[in-house]
Structure formats: structure tokens, C-alpha cells
């Protein structure tokens, strides 16, 4: 087995070769423990760069685990209160969360934005923000609800990381179809995606392939970033054409 220095050197070489990762602008600190677990720390440009970097590290045979402490850099930092206010508005505006109790943690106390007292409620979501990191606690009735809440957190300006601890009640088995269904929902509700009906989604083994036609490069890139925002997505292949 290679020593830690050699493993880190191999990982760094892989990161250097990946065009979607810019180590010169966004350096990543790598630390290998005696147990073979790699710790990754630093800022990255976007969520795709983060997931790709973790995937490169995890693919090295000698790496027994990856501790992901990477965060998303933001050109316009926001205070935690401002992030929480915008996130709360996004959660309230989401059609598929209309039957969920929605709460935010303000000054150490939960503040209800929307209360659903109903046996058929779709969930109870508590959002908190600390140092730009959004944490979602509580429960929802489906994986799609959980993924949607996570995407809304990632959409919030100033968000540097999302800890999605929502429990799905009753539990559901996850899979490629669940990812595709959630992404379809997200694209339909994204105000920056003007032609979601023209985008085709295929997911296999956690790899999302996007195809179809949109009117702008910005729309194409936004659709890809929406896919990266979903948990359990390991890679995104963007074959959308701009007409």
C-alpha cells in the first residue's frame, strides 16, 4: 500500500486533470489519516466541483473513506439571518410544501412560518443557518419532498453547504427513478428554467444524463446545477443543446 504522501499526490494529480476543478483559484487541502480516511477541506467554485472532487478522491483504491468538509465559495457573502429569511420565503412559496409545517430557528428558538395541523400533513421542516451552512431537520413524506427542500436551500444566495437531515416517513427505497422524478419537479419549479418540458432526464446508477433543447447557455448550465443539487447524484452528463 502506498504511503499517505503518495496517495495525496495521486489524488491531487487527478484533481489537476479535471477541467471543472480549479485548484489554482480554489485550493483544496488534503489530509490522509492512518486509517486510510481522507479529509478534504477548502472552498470550491460550485457544487459540481465539490462532488467531482470527492468522487476522484473516493475512486482511489487506497482511500477507505472521504470526509467532505468542502464548502461553496460565494462572491456575495450573506449573513445567517438574511440567508434564513430568503430560505423561509422559498420554502413558503414551494407548491409541493404547502401541506408541510415550516419552521426556522431564530435566536435559538423555532419560529413557525406555516403550521399544518392535519393527519394528512406532508411534513414538518425546521431550517437553521450557521456560518452559511443550512441544516434541515424534521420529517417529510417522500424522498422527492426531501430533495426539493435541499435544492431550495442550495438555491438560497449565500448558502455554503446544506446538511439535509430530514427523515422520510414512512421510509422509501431510493433509486434512479426517484432521482429523475425529483429533478423533473425541480426543473418545473425553477424560475430560471423557461423550457423544462424540452429537457429529457435519464438516471442510471446515480449518473444523470440531460438531453433536449433550451434557448440559452445560461438555461443549460442552470439545469445541470439543479441536477448536481440533488443528493445521491454522483455525476451529470449535460447533452442539452442550445437552439
Can you offer a commentary on this structure?
There is one protein chain. With 243 residues, the protein is α/β, with parallel strands linked by helices. It folds into three domains: 4-72, 2-Layer Sandwich (Histidine-containing Protein, Chain: A), CATH 3.30.1340.30; 80-168, no CATH class; 176-242, 2-Layer Sandwich (Histidine-containing Protein, Chain: A). 33% of the residues lie in helices and 32% in strands. The protein has helices at residues 4-17, 47-58, 80-93, 143-155, 176-189, 217-228, and strands at residues 29-32, 37-44, 65-72, 100-106, 109-114, 123-130, 133-140, 161-164, 167-168, 199-204, 207-214, 235-242. The strands form three sheets. Strands 4, 5, 6, 7, 8 and 9 form a six-stranded mixed beta sheet that branches. Strand 2 (37-44), helix 2 and strand 3 form a beta-alpha-beta unit. Helix 4 (143-155) crosses helix 5. The longest helix is centred in the N-terminal third of the chain and has 14 residues, at 4-17. The model has no long low-confidence stretch (mean pLDDT 95).
Amino acid at each position: 500500500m502506498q504511503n499517505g504522501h503518495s496517495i495525496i499526490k495521486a489524488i491531487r494529480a487527478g484533481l489537476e486533470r479535471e477541467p471543472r476543478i480549479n485548484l489554482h483559484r480554489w485550493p483544496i487541502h488534503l489530509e490522509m489519516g492512518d486509517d486510510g480516511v481522507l479529509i478534504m477541506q477548502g472552498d470550491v467554485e460550485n457544487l459540481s466541483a465539490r462532488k467531482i472532487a470527492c468522487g476522484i478522491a473516493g475512486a482511489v483504491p487506497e482511500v477507505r473513506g472521504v470526509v467532505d468538509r468542502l464548502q461553496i465559495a460565494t462572491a456575495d457573502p450573506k449573513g445567517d439571518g438574511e440567508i434564513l429569511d430568503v430560505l423561509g420565503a422559498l420554502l413558503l412559496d414551494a407548491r409541493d410544501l404547502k401541506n408541510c409545517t415550516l419552521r426556522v430557528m431564530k435566536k435559538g428558538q423555532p419560529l413557525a412560518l406555516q403550521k399544518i395541523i392535519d393527519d394528512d400533513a406532508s411534513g414538518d421542516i425546521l431550517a437553521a443557518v450557521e456560518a452559511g451552512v443550512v441544516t434541515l431537520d424534521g420529517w417529510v413524506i417522500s424522498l422527492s419532498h426531501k430533495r426539493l427542500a435541499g435544492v431550495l436551500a442550495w438555491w438560497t444566495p449565500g448558502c455554503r453547504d446544506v446538511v439535509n437531515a430530514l427523515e422520510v416517513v414512512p421510509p422509501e427505497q431510493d433509486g434512479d427513478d426517484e432521482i429523475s422524478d425529483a429533478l423533473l419537479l425541480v426543473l418545473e419549479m425553477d424560475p430560471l428554467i423557461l423550457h423544462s418540458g424540452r429537457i429529457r432526464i435519464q438516471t442510471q446508477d446515480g449518473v444523470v444524463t440531460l438531453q433536449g433543447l433550451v434557448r440559452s447557455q445560461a438555461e443549460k448550465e442552470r439545469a445541470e446545477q439543479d441536477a448536481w443539487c440533488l443528493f445521491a447524484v454522483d455525476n451529470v452528463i449535460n447533452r442539452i443543446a442550445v437552439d
